[in-house]
Amino acid sequence: MKTLIYDRKKETIKLDTPKKDMVALVGNANYIMWLDIDEPYKEDMDWLKENFNFHPLDLEDCISLIERPKIDLYEDYHFLVTHFPVFDKITRRLSPIQVNVFLGTNFLVTIRKGYIKSLNRTFENVSKDKELLHKGTDYLLHKVIDDLVDYCFPILEKIRGNIQNVENMVFDGATRQT
């Protein structure tokens, strides 16, 4: 689990804060927190349930894979399930990775099973950007989703090129060479 805490009054950013120190900051408007969990363990989910009061079904959705994106709105937070493609260079295949998001007034929690290069890069960039963090968690979520979507464009361009090649072969009467 990676953590980032921005102190709005002191305008400082602290990384890798212990869980016990974060509990007191939940709901405190003077702080913005981002917790990024790339391999959720049961103890992480139990800690989130206990300290953030997330609905048990939302936490269960983070562990199990669900097929459809969704948004659940609660009084204290919003829960989103999204899917983004990730290209595996070894198998040369695209696979979807589920990215779960909890958004509250002073926290953003992202949970996924697997590595997403763009999300890690976003975390690094945000950890140096006080101005972005000062705008709040909704703006932070916008940045995260925007970067994830931007990551998809080269993948889509490659797919478009492959489709174009197939169309050219079909409509030009070319045969595939073996």
Automatic annotation (TrEMBL):
Keyword hit for Transmembrane helix: no
Annotated GO MF terms: cobalt ion binding; cobalt ion transmembrane transporter activity; magnesium ion binding; magnesium ion transmembrane transporter activity
Compartment(s) of residence: Cell membrane
Pfam families per record: CorA
Main localization category: membrane
Listed SUPFAM superfamilies: CorA soluble domain-like
GO cellular component labels: plasma membrane
Keyword flag Transferase: no
Membrane topology according to the record: Multi-pass membrane protein
Keywords: Cell membrane, Membrane, Transport
Record-given protein name: Magnesium and cobalt transport protein CorA
Organism: marine sediment metagenome
